[in-house]
Amino acid sequence: MDFKQILMERYATKKFDGRDIGSDKLNAILDMARYTPSAINLQPWKVKVISDQATKDVLSPLAMGQEQIKSCSHLLIFCANTDFEGHSALLVKGMKKAGAPEDEITWMEDFMGDFIKGMSPEYRVSEAQAHAFMAALTTIYAAKSLGVDSCPMQGFDPVGFSKVLKLPPTLIPTLLVPLGFPADEPLPKDRFPKEELVF
Questions:
Q1: Which residue intervals of the chain are DSSP H helices?
Q2: What pLDDT digit, counting tens, does each position of 64-88 carry?
Q3: Number of independent structural domains in the chain
Q4: The domain containing residue 73 runs over which residues?
Q5: Which of 31, 83, 127, 186 has the smallest count of CB within 10 Å of its CB?
């Protein structure tokens, strides 16, 4: 399936048939998501994977009872990760393991340090959330490339999700992406003409 076909056939699935997509497809989708672009390669996002029905049932009322939560195979919760220092340390560790020259590592440490130091608390959140959205988008198209449907969802209570899942304060639930096989039919794809969006 070429990318244009993926783009045209993907749709916001409103109801799944409950079948398990299988660990092979799930792992392949999540592995592709790792290659989402990010500023300075900091990758400030994490994804919580929920597969058990009991947890999905508890989370469903916190997402306005939307059908996708209960009927999907796996619910992915994309979290903005405001622990930029932690991800910076991981990046440096990876550079050292890969055998990067010491001067490159030092330059990167200094550059990231200055970048992070200049962040306000609000900017940390918005920057991390922007990256969480990009990672979710990569995941949605990766899933479709493997014949798995999805539905990006913002209609949920992030504070409630955090409490149920016992997330640390550095992880902010930002977008839900349920995965599965559809039990509905896509509506005709309707978008604004290019002239309305490009100037």
A1: 3-9, 23-33, 53-59, 67-71, 84-97, 102-117, 121-145, 158-165, 194-197
A2: 999 999 999 999 999 999 999 999 9
A3: 1
A4: 3-182
A5: 31
